[in-house]
Amino acid sequence: MPEPRPHGLPLAGFGRRLAARLIDFAIVLALNVVVNGWFVWRFLEEMEPYWREVVRRAMEGNTSREGLPPIGEQAGGLQLAIVAIAAALWLAYEVPATASSGQTIGKRAMRIRAVPLTADAPLGFGRALARWNTYGGVPTLLWCCFGLGLLIQFIDALSPLFDHPLRQALHDKRAQTVVVQLPKSDPNRPLNDRSDPQETPHDPHRKT
């Protein structure tokens, strides 16, 4: 059975999708260093006495939790602020770009694009938000819940490997999107241009 070609384009491979995600992650991380750095520094200050004593006892083989220094009063609020800012930065970076063009900087670098499954049109804000919220929004807010958010994101990242035939991640299924690979010669061609530069158009009047 031939592989599906949504809008006349081949599906993006897992390697390209992963590389694009890592590029985007590096960019969002850099934004967080600039915007979120002070909050992280203050959080570490609040936690430092507690964790220093925990590590000291662990090195001595002491597993007792009695008498540990109290965690700073502002630690909880700072943790929530860090997570909320991280989610807001990610949303601002990804959702508008994906809504208008189906591409982030990482996707442009890897020549891939997120497209609606059934329509030759941009994703639009609602679909882009639903897509991002499945792997970015809600899971990021759950980072502080014993790593639950990170587990969800890990499962979502691997999910295209187990989906056939459209290689949809969980967030693709939520938003009814697929990720396609763009032609090397013209990565910005319209979605409704189904011509393949590697194929010769068929002329029904040509004799063979």
From TrEMBL:
InterPro entries: Pra-immunoreactive, RDD. This is Uncharacterized membrane protein YckC, RDD family. It is found in: Cell membrane. It comes from Micromonospora avicenniae. Residues 191-208 have a biased composition (Basic and acidic residues). PANTHER family: MEMBRANE PROTEIN (PTHR36115:SF4), PROLINE-RICH ANTIGEN HOMOLOG-RELATED (PTHR36115). Keywords: Cell membrane, Membrane, Transmembrane, Transmembrane helix. The chain crosses the membrane at residues 21-41, 140-158. Residues 181-208 are annotated as: Disordered. Residues 11-175 form the RDD domain. It is a multi-pass membrane protein. GO terms for cellular component: plasma membrane.
